[in-house]
Each structure stands twice: as C-alpha cells, then as structure tokens.
Backbone:
C-alpha cells in the first residue's frame, strides 16, 4: 500500500496539459488561461473627472470664493476641443475627459451656479478628483497570467483590457462509468433488491463544477462482457473514472476484466480509509481512476484525486485545502490516513472548527448531506486531540 501523497504524485505525473482553444470571455469563468494576457487599451485611456463638478485651473481657486466663467459642458463620452483659460471652468461629469488647460475638479457640492458663471466656495488642490491616464494600467501591461483560473472578477478585468476573446486550455472530457448489478439511474424501473445510483450523478456534478466535461458512460452490470462493452465507450475521453467493483470481492471485476482488455494498472490500494481500494492506471492509453462504490469513499477519492487530475489536465494548480482545528478529539488506530466528515462550526470569536461527524456505516448519505467536508488525519497518532490542526476539504 502506498501513501496518499505518493498516490497523488504518481497519478498526476503522466497527465499532460490539454491543448489550448480560443473562447469568448463570456464563456471564460472557471477556464484556465493558456497565455499571459496583455491589455489592449490603457485604462483610463485619458485623464478623466472622478466626480460631477467643474474642471478648473487650480491657480484660479487658490483664493475662495472665486467666480469663474463656464465655457463648456462635458458629459462622459464627449470631449471638448477648446482650452480652459484663466478665470474659466467647464461643467464636467464623472468619467468625462479633463479638458486641456484644466488640472483640477471642484465638486459640485463646493460651488454655487449662477447662469453662465460658477462661484467656487471651497478650494481644491491641483489634481483633485482627476484620474490620470493609465492610472489603472497601460496598454501592453500583463495583468492575467497563464495558469490562472478565470473568476468573475477576472472576466471583468479582461473586458476592461479590451480582450473579448481568450486562449484557454481545453476542458477535459471525463468519462464516468458506474459498475454495479444493484444500481439503477434515478427514476428508472427498479427491482426490490436494487438501489439508486447516486455516484454517477454526484461525480458528474463535481466534474462540471471543477471545469471538466462529464461524459456519462452508463452503468455496467457486474458481468465481464458487459463491463468490457461499457468501458469501450471511453474511447476519446481525456480521463476515465469508474465507480464500484475495484475491491476484493468476486463481483469486483474492474481490475481483472479490464486488465485483459487494455488496462495497465499502476497502483491499487492506498493507505487510507475510506477509499483504500482506489486503482490508478491507464485504459487503452487513457488515464483511468477506479473509485470504490461506497458513496462517501467515491466522493473522498474524487476530491482528493480526480479533481487534482482535472486541474492538472487544465494546466492549473490544484487548490490547497483549508487548515482547520478539530473541535473534539478523534481516536483512530489503523496505520492509515483517515478521512473524516466534519461540520464547520464557529466559536464566539468567529473562528471555524472542524467538528467530527463519523459516518455510521448505513448513514453515508446523512453524512454527505449534513456535513461540510472532511478532514485528513495523517497516520501516526492514534489519538488526535481537540485543537489538532489539519487539512480540511469541502464538498
Ligand atoms: P463496491 O465498491 O462495488 O464494492 O460497492 C460498495 C458499495 O457501494 C455497495 O454497497 C454498492 O451498492 C455501493 N455502490 C456501488 N455503486 C454505486 C453507485 N453508483 N451509487 C451508489 N452506491 C453505489
Ligand atoms: Mg459492486
């Protein structure tokens, strides 16, 4: 058995970043940049007023009150070809270009208007409320870097940089194969001894949330021929993920059957609970992860291994877990990494604590529904004290 970190390093090592493609920024949230992005326009492109008021020469408002003649009105989006001379002002609005000759904005609240004249009652220092050209960034400035995952605020920034398109790494197609005689898809006809497949849909939802494209390959019954046929559907995906059938029972066919059909196993069994029977390899040249079928095991393995694999294929860093302290002591004897569902609870100072919620075997779904994620307790100590700080993954 290998450790969690060794397993992760080994399954990530052969993965290649997918080729780049060009997309519209409106489709960019969650995508990973394949290029450094340089601004195509200086922002602001010209010196502009930051307030509604009057554009003046600072020297004219050194002594107040000062009476100035209004020679122009400049709304945002317009310009003024002339020059503001001594004793003159322009009525100006937020975002409008500062006219030549003026160097300062006096806000409307500090003036009294009288027809074609304005009386400035409160002076302003030179440059007040002027946004100089390039205050934010200049054309050519690189503000977004290859490998960054686009967030909504990055989309706004790319738009301000006048970049309607972006080069991003292609989203990995992730084939999802469930394997079990006893499961049927939600809503389908179901026998008395069957259960509803939750894993395939949970996996697909997580894959989508992480930027991958789930490809449902269906549910293969525990039968060698059927399994081979269903697995063959994985032709063309970038990563194949199966759930169920990788353990040691006679009906756990994934390793045995697919090994005779193009599966090369790199490793199987990891020193962790739950999820120990996880298998990693390549099926007909496609990277494959075989996840155990228990819904909690499936999701722990998904978050700890599949999501990092998707991040790798998309050319970005995997997200680091949060660090959190245990709200209660935990005892765990086996020399395995222990993944333990927790709820996050806040103390009187607002600090988060991870409160252990051990699954009770049949309560797997309650444990998924009622918890916020899981902590990772490294092997070694048999007792983890209250306050023990460790990695916490949300689900
Ligand atoms: P296995 O890994 O095949 O030994 O399955 C372990 C447990 O997970 C069994 O109780 C299965 O019924 C359950 N299981 C397997 N596949 C699924 C699935 N797609 N959705 C929900 N539970 C499943
Ligand atoms: Mg099974």
Residues:
């Amino acid at each position: 058995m290998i450790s969690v970190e060794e397993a992760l390093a080994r399954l990530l090592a052969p993965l290649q970043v997918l080729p780049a493609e060009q997309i519209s920024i409106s489709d960019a949230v969650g995508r990973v940049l394949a290029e450094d992005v340089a601004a195509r326009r200086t922002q602001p492109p010209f010196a502009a007023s930051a307030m509604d008021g009057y554009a003046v020469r600072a020297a004219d408002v050194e002594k107040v009150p000062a009476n100035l003649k209004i020679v122009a009105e400049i709304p945002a989006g317009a310009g003024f070809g002339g020059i503001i001379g001594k004793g003159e002002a322009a009525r100006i609005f937020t975002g409008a270009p500062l006219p030549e000759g003026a160097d300062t904005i006096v806000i409307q609240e500090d003036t009294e208007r009288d027809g074609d004249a304005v009386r400035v009652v409160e002076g302003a220092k030179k440059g007040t409320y002027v946004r100089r050209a390039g205050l934010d960034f200049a054309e050519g400035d690189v503000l977004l870097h290859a490998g960054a995952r686009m967030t909504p605020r990055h989309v706004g920034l790319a738009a301000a940089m006048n970049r309607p398109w972006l080069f991003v790494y292609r989203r990995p197609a992730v084939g999802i194969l469930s394997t079990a005689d006893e499961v049927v898809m939600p809503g389908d006809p179901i026998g008395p001894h069957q259960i509803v497949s939750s894993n395939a849909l949970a996996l697909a939802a997580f894959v989508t949330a992480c930027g991958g494209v789930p490809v449902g390959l269906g549910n293969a019954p525990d039968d060698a021929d059927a399994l081979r046929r269903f697995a063959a559907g994985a032709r063309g995906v970038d990563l194949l993920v199966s759930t169920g059938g990788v353990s040691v029972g006679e009906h756990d066919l994934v390793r045995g059957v697919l090994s005779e059909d193009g599966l090369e196993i790199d490793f199987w069994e990891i020193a962790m609970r739950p999820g120990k029977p996880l298998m990693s390899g390549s099926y007909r040249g496609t990277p494959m992860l075989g996840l155990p079928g228990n819904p909690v095991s499936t999701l722990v393995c998904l978050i700890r291994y599949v999501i990092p694999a998707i991040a790798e294929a998309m050319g970005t860093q995997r997200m680091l877990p949060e660090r959190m302290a245990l709200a209660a002591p935990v005892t765990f004897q086996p020399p395995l990494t222990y993944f333990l569902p927790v709820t996050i609870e806040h103390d009187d100072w607002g600090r988060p604590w991870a409160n252990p919620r051990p699954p009770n075997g049949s309560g797997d779904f309650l444990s998924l529904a009622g918890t916020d994620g899981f902590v990772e307790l490294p092997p070694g100590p048999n007792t983890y004290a209250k306050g023990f700080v460790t990695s916490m993954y949300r689900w």
